[in-house]
UniProtKB/TrEMBL annotation:
EC number(s) on file: 5.1.99.1
UniProt lineage: Bacteria, Bacillati, Bacillota, Bacilli, Bacillales
EC supergroup of this enzyme: isomerase
SUPFAM superfamilies: Glyoxalase/Bleomycin resistance protein/Dihydroxybiphenyl dioxygenase
NCBIfam families: metmalonyl_epim (TIGR03081)
Official protein name in the record: Methylmalonyl-CoA epimerase
């Protein structure tokens, strides 16, 4: 199954400062900014476009329960995850399971842009947080 880089998620403490850096230093365009208080997300997200490459800046909205807050506490600011776009999320999950790679079912969701996503278990990915995603509204499934 074909996989392409969809975006990189970056954990940040101060979203406005990070947006400023991406815009003024990297020449990025702010595509969207929104909050998600869903359990397992609890973040404010800024979607940045740098010449056709998407970066999601992720700032925790709850320093106790947000997975981004836990990540920053354990590892500091920086790259949180790498997301790969697949043609069909369900088929990709089946393929992973056949290969003995576990997915984190509690992370399965659809974001506000219609992106279906799930995270692979970092214990099976050499410690890297990897997201698989698809966009069924765009005809990917």
């Amino acid at each position: 199954m074909k996989k392409t880089l969809d975006h990189i998620g970056v954990a940040v403490r101060q979203l406005d400062e990070s947006i400023n850096f991406y815009q003024n230093v990297l020449g990025a365009k702010l595509i969207d900014r929104y909050r998600s208080e869903k359990s397992g997300v609890e973040s404010e997200i800024a979607v940045m476009d740098v010449n056709g490459t998407t970066t999601e800046l992720l700032a925790p909205t709850n320093n106790t329960t947000s997975p981004i807050a836990r990540f920053i506490k354990q590892k500091g600011k920086g790259v949180h995850h790498i997301a790969y776009r697949v043609d069909d999320l369900e088929m990709a999950i089946d393929d992973l399971k056949q290969k003995g790679i576990r997915v984190m079912e509690e992370t399965r969701r659809v974001n506000k842009h219609g992106r279906r996503l799930i995270y692979l278990n970092p214990a099976d990915t050499d410690g890297t947080i990897i997201e698989y995603c698809d966009y069924p509204e765009e005809g990917d499934t």
